[in-house]
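Hello K.,

You asked for the raw outputs rather than the summary table, so here they are, unedited. I folded two proteins back to back in the same session to keep the settings identical. This is the first:
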Amino acid sequence: MNKVWLITGCSTGFGRELAKEVLAVGYNAVVTARNPADIMDIIEDYPETAMAVKLDVTVAAEIKAAVSSTIEKFGRIDVLVNNAGIGYFAAVEESEEEQVRRMFEINFFGLAKMIQEVLPVMRHQRSGHILNISSIGGLRSFPAVGFYNATKYAVDGLSEALAKETAPLGIKVTIIAPSGFRTDWAGRSAEDSHIKIADYADTAGKNTGDIRAISGNQPGDPARAAKAIIKVVEAEHPPMRLLLGAAALKGGRLKLEELRHDFDTWEATTIGADFPKL
């Protein structure tokens, strides 16, 4: 139970619930947020096993400082949870470059930098577990969140490659892919584009409205998700991808059906693109 967890984005949602659960069951945790005042209540009852650290994953110096502080206090990092992330609602044509780039900096490049900073520690230990909070939107795309989907597809692609690179070193990688959970993702954490094109009202516009309308009433329970994530870390053979929520499972299976349909329907054309066999 002396494992050390480093968790990003703990002020709300998954990060907050996970930090609380990790500490409650007896692990050590470095709990991070852009504003440490937002997380002091999480650590106040755990002076020996918890530490609050200021961390904006878009600031390289803060990433380095967070990792250094973790090593200074606990001497190791066993679990990295890349949870920090934001959403953005807009049809692809409506999307604003500044907002899209900001989202990529947080959801993908910040996550990647965290991994790069922690890997030397885990390589030295010859052990560790990296959990990247992605989304069912990293497997299956939806109108109004095309660029958000793109950030999560990037996370999934990076994670799959990382898992193959680090497995011989004793380092595990798991992609966590939730569907709708009662976090701030569809609330204050997600911006809307200022550009509105009427032709997308029935696709991107409708989906934005539907997602916003159920914010706070999604079926997913972040506290139960936290317990599921801990179960994955404690497993001898954890999955490379864990879907969370019934809607995620349904969406994942639909994606498999879509892929199978296209692969099988166009099999001859696919194979025909190779040079003929002699």
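The second followed immediately with the same parameters:
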Amino acid sequence: MDGFDFDFDFLGGMDSDDESVFLRSKERTYFDVHDGAEILSRRAELPQDGESLRAISYAGGFSSCSVVIWIAAKAKIERMFVSTLRVGKKEIDAMQDLHESGKLDSASFVLCGISKENKSLKGKDYGYTEYFEEKCAECGFEWCYAKNHSKVILLDTSNGKFVIETSSNFNENPKVEQFCITKSDLIYNFYKSGIFGE
């Protein structure tokens, strides 16, 4: 296809170091979005124009939110679009922190309608919806609910436009997740018009 001539770099692999192994414990994995951003800072550079960085995060590694924090440390995010199943409390807190520190100007979220019900598969009420909506209102972020299962993040930054395609929702990441982080106006505009209708 015309316009798709990308170089690829890979992050992750099956090394035995502490950042890229499977965690086999059945105990609860506690996750910190800032720790995940630190992992990325130590192991990767932002892709340049027409480049993609592909990564695998193993259990407890980094999440979509961690990738956004990592990019925000290197370039001011002027506009962010997030398409995801749901947004976790730690993650919307982190976006509020970025906004209040001047690293994130504005954000729009498209969530799956089921996330509005607040419940896990086991029926536990996490209170995500009220908390998420309150934080968005405080920051002036936009949000809506739709029949949505896509997981794409678009960042229009002071260093260009980035697209994050991932299996990871915008909440805690106790599982193996895959990421493709691309710097491309073409792909950014493709997703923006297709998912966000702009």
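The first strand starts at residue 7 and ends at 11.

Happy to rerun anything if the numbers look odd on your end.

Regards,
P.
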